[in-house]
Amino acid sequence: MTSALPTAIHHDDESTGRPITMFGPDFPFAYDDFLANPAGLGSLPAERHGTEVAVIGGGLSGIVTAYELMKLGLRPVVYEIAEIGGRLRTVNFPGCPDDVVAEMGAMRFPPASTALFHYIDKVGLETTPFPNPLAPGTPSTVVDLKGESHYARTADELPAVFGKVAAAWDSTLSEQAAFTEMQKAIRERDAKMIKRLWNELVPRLDNQTFYGFLCDSPAFASFRDREIFGQVGFGTGGWDTDFPNSILEILRVVYTGADDEHRSIVGGSRQLPLRLWEHAPEDIAFWPAGTSLSSLHGGSPNPGVARLHRTAPNNITVTDTEGRIRTYPAAVFTAQSWMLLSKIACDEALFPIDHWTAIERTHYMESSKVFVPVDRPFWLDKDPATGRDTMSMTLTDRMPRGTYLLGDDPDAPAVICLSYTWADDSLKWLPLSVSERVEVMLQSLKEIYPGVDVRRHIIGDPVTVSWEAEPHFMGAFKANLPGHYRYQHRLFTHFKQDRLEERHRGLFLAGDDVSWTAGWAEGAVQTALNAVWGVLNHFGGETDPANPGPGDVYEEIAPIELPD
């Protein structure tokens, strides 16, 4: 994704052409190299082949976990209460081509998500540049603040104040967060340098909000500059909804290039978990050729989980929503962690009390979207009076906040994401029906584009989501608050269970909200691979010496521990 503001930040490795990966800085393990190594992820004792392992949650993390456990020769048993995909939720519009879709959850993926793209490439999905503000593939962008609109095709066409704010952000990163040094270390995959730099920052910044970090910078002495930065921001747009969150969350994004050069999956992101579900890997242990997750499950996953408890000697017993009970020697929980507090009856012996506290303290961001299908990408029409595009990718301080125009085939239907909002901005939509939401958005867009009648181009019913109201999610993605580093440390490192009492072993946490890079599908993949290593180790398996796993090198690159 390209910044909404001018920036000098570059994310490509000039020597290899490989993008900066999202493997750091807390745990700089090269997950992409681990996946690409021909030695594979490890091997199990023959007597463990065919052993059942429960995988709870059929989102991306759960499907990746199950897929890799299957390849090792285990029998994953997937439980999913709704549909495969989780927050990779794609909605099709009746009567429209298959590639005209609404991405209700994840919709843009940075090339820095190198482990994620391993699976995207494996199942043969096509990607295309996502039209973020001022991205090279975005025809034009309108920044509408305080009733004044600014049209631009490149960042250089915006008023000078935006360049001033962008320079303030670059200066703040360089002076307050060792940005240049960290970029160099990540580009060179220098884990020791990454750890040295990050381990100095974490104790200093764990208690700091994003907004406080800006206020402490001389470059952001102006309230107006901080306000503009919050409304327009970098990358996806305004970041003021993130201002209360820990600055460490933001630094993880910019260090790893997660805010740059986003791509979308043609036909929708849900295809990835669905294709992995059906995919029959060639390099598979124990199972016959042609085995897939789908064939092991008779085509469909098991229903959702109603109860989890431990049974002797060290098993995990699962009761599903249809009352069926099965016991497993190991299990991986990949669903939204708050489900363990409210939707699933849990035995407290599942985790140590400190881990229960970390689960309870997890902070989730709200998020809402509204999409409408339209007859064609009419926004590419030129205004005869100005020569400008009829409509543009729009960032505004009005209710929609971000409006995205998706589609560029002049003879085919297209989609408008009328609004994409987070946190308090999302909560403003919560009481409104989908039709009420659309009316407010169309009125706001009419103020920005008075000569454009969006309504006459709409060809189908709108679709919407408020993730905080989704009963099996209760939020869009995790975002740590100041002081939450210790909680996140407990959740992420749970896969390395040698320091846990034996009675707490065998159940592994994975998923987006367990990762250090929550809000990005890459985090779901990375924690899945951690859990796979954990199960492998739990069953007496081992990795090839030529391809050590995340647990094998853990002591060398472990996240810093802060004192209590």
Short synopsis of the structure:
By secondary structure, the protein is an alpha/beta fold. It has 18 helices and 21 strands.
Structure in words:
It is a single chain. With 564 residues, the protein is of the alpha/beta class. Helix content is 30%, strand content 16%. It has helices spanning 31-36, 60-71, 114-122, 160-176, 179-187, 191-205, 210-215, 223-232, 247-255, 271-278, 293-296, 339-342, 353-361, 423-427, 434-448, 485-492, 521-538, 554-557; strands at 52-56, 75-79, 90-92, 101-103, 127-129, 141-145, 148-152, 263-265, 305-311, 315-320, 325-328, 331-333, 345-346, 364-365, 367-374, 393-396, 402-406, 414-422, 463-466, 477-478, 507-509. The strands form 6 sheets. The chain has a 7-stranded mixed β-sheet, sandwiched between helices. Helix 2 (60-71) runs parallel beside helix 10. The two termini are 38 Å apart. Residues 1-12 have low confidence and may be disordered.
Key words describing this protein structure:
single chain; 564 residues; alpha/beta; 7-stranded mixed beta sheet; 4-stranded parallel beta sheet; 18 helices; 16% strand; globular; disordered N terminus
Strand content: 15-25%
Q: Strand order of the main beta sheet, please?
A: 7-6-16-17-18-15-19
**pLDDT < 50 runs, ≥5 residues:** 1-12
Please give the share of residues in helix.
25-40%
Q: Please tally the β strands and state the result.
A: 21
What is the mean pLDDT? 94
Number of helices: 18
